[in-house]
Specification:
Elements: H1 2-15, H2 20-26, H3 42-45, E1 54-57, H4 65-78, E2 82-86, H5 89-99, E3 106-111, H6 117-122, E4 127-130, H7 134-137, H8 145-158, E5 164-167, H9 174-186, E6 191-193, H10 207-225, E7 232-235, H11 243-249, E8 253-256, H12 258-261, H13 266-280, H14 286-309
Parallel strand pairs: 1-2, 1-8, 2-3, 3-4, 4-5, 5-6, 6-7, 7-8
Helix pairs in contact: 1-10, 1-11, 2-11, 4-5, 4-13, 8-9, 9-10, 10-11, 13-14
Length: 310
């Protein structure tokens, strides 16, 4: 069944020529009851493909402030809309300061400890997320549907009006993922995030390998988007090659982590985000990206010189 789903998805994309206009007809509108921090959710529910959110993931257990700031700048200059960081007050304050007055760019914090979310929101987090689970799998931890429901219940009890995204574990069967998604919908979750079997991706990989790595999260996006009316964010193993497939499959947003965070330098990060933004149809100008990189590097030099003078 899984194989046929993937074949169908690829067939649709090939027939429609990666036309983002065709995505619009397959996306169902969703009205969120969230009152607070609503702007952080606007693009998820707008139904406009060219404004589909792009979230860059720093990591649920990455508390390195310098790395988070670098990734935030890369996300902003590359044309993303959200940064997803660990649930830590000092980290959030540093990232929010980096974001500054940037228009239409928001901070999401991820955790599996609901009690931490209150301080995170007070520190400036725009959205909260249960997940990502990738870093826990290597430690032998898994999350059942019951676990996710309980974490969601606790979170909604503490912060009922803050935009909430919940990650559905890839370790569940596709049928169980659908059942969990329907339950989360009744709990008034605002966004559901998919995940695939974790494997670092690289822009240097071949097209076939990149699509195969993304297949599990694309399959989940396809199934879940047809089972619930909650916006689906496809994440795990996605690159500029596979994001059009995920959008056509039914995802309304994209989350990318290792394809950006594992890169060697800031310039590569910015360009990688820019390639993904362009693949999604988000507005990015490659010339502007290069200029922004140069401006940021100049600012760093000026700041360094000021410190030396002082």
């Amino acid at each position: 069944m899984f194989k046929y789903i993937i074949i169908y998805i690829i067939f649709v994309v090939l027939v429609e020529g990666f036309s983002l206009n065709s995505i619009k007809s397959s996306i169902r509108a969703h009205r969120s009851p969230v009152q607070m921090n609503k702007r952080a959710l606007d693009n998820f529910i707008s139904g406009i493909p060219t404004k589909a959110p792009l979230k860059i993931i720093s990591g649920i257990n990455n508390y390195n402030i310098d790395q988070a700031i670098q990734l935030t700048n890369a996300a902003i200059y590359g044309g993303a809309s959200h940064i997803d960081i660990a649930c830590d007050v000092n980290l959030i304050k540093a990232v929010k300061e980096t974001i500054g007055n940037t228009n239409d760019f928001y901070c999401i914090v991820s955790s599996i400890e609901p009690k931490k979310f209150s301080e995170a929101v007070a520190a400036g987090a725009d959205m909260i997320e249960i997940g990502n689970y990738d870093s826990f799998y290597g430690k032998g931890m898994t999350f059942s549907a019951k676990d996710v429901i309980e974490l969601t219940r606790q979170t909604k009890e503490i912060l009922p009006d803050i935009p909430l995204s919940v990650t559905i574990p890839h370790t569940l069967s596709l049928n169980d993922q659908i059942l969990l998604a329907k339950e989360l919908e009744t709990m008034k979750v605002d966004v559901i995030q998919t995940e695939g079997k974790f494997k670092s991706t690289s822009m240097a990989m071949g097209v076939q390998e990149l699509i195969e790595i993304a297949a599990p999260t694309i399959a989940s996006a396809y199934a879940l988007s047809r089972a619930v009316n909650i916006p689906i964010m496809a994440a795990s193993g996605l690159t500029d090659v596979s994001v059009p497939l995920a959008l056509t499959a039914g995802a309304k947003a994209i989350g990318v982590g290792s394809a950006i965070s594992k890169l060697n330098n800031f310039q590569e990060m910015v360009m990688a985000v820019s390639f993904i933004s362009q693949a999604m149809g988000r507005k990015t100008n490659e010339g502007d990206v290069y200029q922004q990189i140069q401006n940021l590097e100049l600012m760093k030099v000026q700041k360094s010189n000021k410190l030396i003078v002082d």
